[in-house]
Amino acid sequence: MPRSILNSSRILGIVSAKGGVGKTTTAINIGAAAVDMLNKNVLIFDTNLDSGDLCLNLGLTYNPISLSNITKNPVLFFN
Question: What distance lies between CA 45 and its chain's CA centroid?
Fold first, then answer.
């Protein structure tokens, strides 16, 4: 792989309008592979409007704040 590709940042979106097709699982596995194989830092951001379950899938503490909550009242989250 060319050195310029390994040293640059990338944004990858896993998108589907249908639920239950494996978007979260795919994002977690691609992120884990990037960390393991390329020794890169990875940020995974779940933009599910109703209830992102990324934390649950990673075994992290679940905080039920959704993107929908933030867009309805951003003052509560950014002050």
Answer: 3
pTM value surpassing 0.70: no
CA–CA separation, 48 and 75 (whole Å): 20
Residue type, 73: N
Sequence-separated (6 or more) residues with CB below 8 Å from residue 76: 69
| Closest to 27 measured CA to CA, from 51, 10, 43 | 43
Given this model, what pLDDT does residue 47 score?
76
Task: Identify residue 12 by its one-letter amino acid code.
Answer: L
Q: Residue 60's Cα: distance from chain center in Å?
A: 13
CA-nearest of 44, 50, 78 to 66 is 50
Give CA 38 to chain center in angstroms.
18
